[in-house]
């Protein structure tokens, strides 16, 4: 075993369904300026550069999103290494078709 960590991913469509059912917490790992330009309602902004200091209130059903999915995957791996169950949102905000807030 080489220590590879497989991070589960979901689509933005599945994320929308889960958020509508109030299932889970969403972390947006983009920079604050990106987040302020438009984010999913209820998402907490924790930039990738600060993800190592972040501890979720409820470590279950944690979803991570960024612009395209690359930063969120890195954040998810970092959180997973700390024993936090996390799911990456594939495609990120570029794939999100739902409403955003500023």
Automatic annotation (TrEMBL):
<dbReference type="InterPro" id="IPR001763">
    <property type="entry name" value="Rhodanese-like_dom"/>
</dbReference>
<dbReference type="InterPro" id="IPR050229">
    <property type="entry name" value="GlpE_sulfurtransferase"/>
</dbReference>
<feature type="domain" description="Rhodanese">
    <location>
        <begin position="25"/>
        <end position="102"/>
    </location>
</feature>
<dbReference type="Pfam" id="PF00581">
    <property type="entry name" value="Rhodanese"/>
</dbReference>
<dbReference type="InterPro" id="IPR036873">
    <property type="entry name" value="Rhodanese-like_dom_sf"/>
</dbReference>
<protein>
    <submittedName>
        <fullName>Rhodanese-like domain-containing protein</fullName>
    </submittedName>
</protein>
């Amino acid at each position: 075993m080489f220590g590879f960590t497989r991070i589960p991913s979901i689509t933005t469509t599945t994320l929308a369904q889960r958020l509508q059912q109030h299932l889970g917490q969403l972390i947006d790992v983009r920079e604050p300026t990106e987040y302020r330009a438009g984010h999913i309602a209820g998402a907490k902004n924790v930039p990738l550069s600060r993800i190592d200091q972040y501890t979720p209130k409820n470590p279950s059903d944690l979803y991570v999103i960024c612009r395209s999915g690359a930063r969120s995957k890195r954040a998810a791996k970092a959180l997973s290494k700390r024993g936090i169950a996390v799911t990456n949102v594939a495609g990120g905000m570029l794939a999100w078709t739902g409403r955003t807030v500023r």
